[in-house]
User: What shape does this take?
Amino acid sequence: MSSVSVRSLGKGFGGRTVLDGIDLDVPHGQLMAVLGPSGCGKTTLLRIIAGFLAPDAGAVTLDGSVVAGGRRPVPPQHRRVGYVPQEGALFPHLSAGGNIMFGLPRRDRGEDRLAELLELVELPADVAAAHPHQLSGGQQQRVALARALAPRPRVVLLDEPFSSLDAALRENAGRAVSRVLRAAGTTAILVTHDQGEALSLADQVAVMRAGRLAQVAAPVDLYHDPADVEVATFVGGACVLPARVHGGYATCLLGDLPLHPVRGATETAPRGGAGEVGVAGSAPGADGLVHVVVRPEQILLGAADGAPARAVVSEVGFYGHDATVRLRVEGADPVTLVARVSSDGVPAVGDRVGLSARGPVRTYR
Amino acid sequence: MLTLDPADLRDLLVRPRVGELLVNTVGLLVGAVALSVVLGVGCAWVVERTDLPGTRGWHALFAAPLAVPAFVSSYGWVSVTHAVQSYAGAVLVVSLSYFPLVYLPVVAALRGLDPALEEVAHSLRQSRAATFWRVILPGVRPAVLGGALLVGLHVLAEFGALQTLGFPTFTTAIYDSYRSSFNSGSANVLASVLVLGCLLLLLGELRLRGSRSLSRVGGGSSRPVEPMPLGRAGFGVLTAAALLAVLALGVPVASLVRWLVVGSSTAFPVAELATATATSIALAAAAAVLVTAMAVPVAWLAVRHRGALSTLVERCTYVGHALPGIVVALALVAVSIRLVRPLYQTVPLLLVAYAILFLPRALVSVRSSLELAAPVLEDVARSLGTGTAATLRRVTLPVIAPGLGAGAALVFLAVSTELTATLLLAPIGAGTLATEFWSNSSAVRYGAAAPYALLLITLSVPATYLLGRQARVRP
Assistant: This one.
């Protein structure tokens, strides 16, 4: 049974549609990331599930009981949802311990439970006496999570919880939060605009675009088998190239590339996207033309002679573990591609290289 | 309210006396505001941006004149030298009393100003002086303007100090004409001119302030500033600061003490002193509670339900900010005598006057604390199973409590040192420390007035301390 179930949810503000027919199921104990650019409606979705906003249409069910869209909406204080907003929003007048114990009935506020929760969120016991302004951003975030988990909620909602942390802290904090949620066995929804965060932390990722869900899939499937070109370019780098399909191969300027096999477990049909499930993705148009999406790490650099395409290196970004190479492909119609190469084979700017590609691709009309 | 025909009105308005008052009032306004701004900004810069030793002590000294009401310090000055009974003397004494009104907001603004701005200016080869003019001053401009407006409004409303200094302005003339003849026609005409002046000041400040937002860009953490070494100038700055402290505090307090010790009329009528103290405390406390309670719903509307109506309600309360105590008192006298006679010279009417006069002060504190209490805190509380009433009790009220306390302290301070409206509206026989001090000192019983002044200052110290501490809290 799904812990959180959202059906045909709609919401508008002053004539502007913010959510349009959202269907989403979060299985028990899973971490679902809702990924989208700012203004796509993801925070509104979260606030409706929490009960801070009422939907215009549709229903929200938590553990089988309807909390919105039924006869009477259940107010937030009776929904048993944990809420971790941006920057934690700790109560400034209470210590960390006071914050964590806030949602528990007086008889349950014991030293034991506090110690247990601090241990769960991997904080030392002496943090309990500190006030929010004495804590670092990462510690505040963990206290906020402990506070949300203390009353054993049915689901924890996290609204861009890491956006205020700096890049170095963000990854660690994200890993820690996902570890804590798994240890507590809690269902959780994480709203974020950071695709790396969504892919690396969540069990399932729901990609949201202009108030609709474009695709819901496991991170691996989302990356390798995106539902349409927009999802492909939003989730990770992507080069979109025109191609012609024949006999299980797509021919583009990088040569003949094998087509992706039958779409995997990504059964959720997107609305309005190129969603036909087929052997080789979208059927070609009348002229036989399709587009293929090639990921930067699928592009291979080699000797210029005999390669399907040649290019000049225009820019190199070196990251240590790998490097991105911006390439200007030679030809009548100049195309720019980005390739990701391992750090021991980085060309210099101005080098002339040969291009090829490996691995299966998916086609889109 | 006016039952004058146009000819009488013209006769009352266009006469040499009004011209003289206008010159005095405007001259004093310009001089006192300018001197207060120079003193306030200068002191704030020295305290916040240089390595002057003993910063905390200097901060306390520069905020302390707020605890000494202007009518007390002018009494101190007059009993030292009669030279202050002149234009220059009036400007000096009034500015020494009111410059903390510029100093405190500018200190707070300098604290909030990102020091990186100044470092960037230095890296762009701007000198210290150029950085001050081109970066610091524009950055603290709203605070300077707000402080200058407050000084201006206080100068226009000042009665006791200017009466003591023998420097007639509109406010003292209104009081005299009301007291001498109960001639409300003349008093009302003068009061109208005074209100017009106050409103012009308010509009002028709004125009100058503009609508540009000066908030910080980006969420980087603010570091403490590297203080500027004063070097050889240090001794000069130290001397100037000491001189200012002596003039603003030393002279009034010393002459107060002298009167206590050697004054021939000095007496310590313990029972009367205790009664006046109790009356002052009771009135100030009642007004503090009442006015702060009134500020909460107005602030709530203004912060959480922004709209045309809530903005209008908020702006209306600010009119009280611009109304001199004497004008509010005269209006309430007229209204109560004509419409609700039983209320004339009663405590409730006095509290109404305090509410009109001091609601804006409480509102500023309550409002800023409500803005800090982000709605997301209430969301979190509700998601943790807390109902509406419990959220108010366990989250919202504790978070805004410091703001409520500061607002109440401000009102307490203002009411305990209020003179003009209290003189006109207090029930017969109910003397506060301020009015008892006033009746003794205006009858030249300086020694008898001294104990009241001392108690008045003692009563003002805690609230002043609170204000001073608040200005230096890192935002």
Summary: Chain B has a mean pLDDT of 84. Residues 300 and 306 of chain B are 9 Å apart (CA to CA). Chain B has 22 helices and no strands. Chain B touches chain A through 19 residues (CB under 8 Å).
